[in-house]
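Revision sheet: structure tokens.
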Amino acid sequence: MKQPSDKPQKPHKFLKMPSFPGGKSSFREFVKENLRYPEEALKNSIQGTVFLDYTVDNIGTVENIVVTRGIGYGCDEEAIRLIKLITYPAVKNKGVKMKVSMKTRISFVLPAPPKEKKEITSEIRINYTAASQPAGNKPEQPPQPSYGYTLTFGSKPHNS
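Predicted:
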């Protein structure tokens, strides 16, 4: 029978779980810095999320990495490579050696295309034409040459 004077007890956590140093935001930063987008995925415009399961032992070693849902084109292999780079801090659980199953996902988002550079070009055309007189007529004055100029200024897209 409960007594009103009894304090509610907090649940005890008996085992400490391994966690990425710095938490979720550090994990995202780690992925951002180390992710190499696969060439095959870039060529085929592939993006999406790779889901992985893995285990972490008591000394922080990552093992048994399995892709549970992948997107292919080299992204699955890159996600496995990233998880292999992780080392968790060792967890001490009063002499109990344990392995913890962990799940994570790695998102592959295509980089934004670079903005098109515009190159300003100018074009100058000069046309020279000599005026001619029909045969048989003697001109009172020698023919004067005529000149024409075409100036075009604008911009053309420059593809790198």
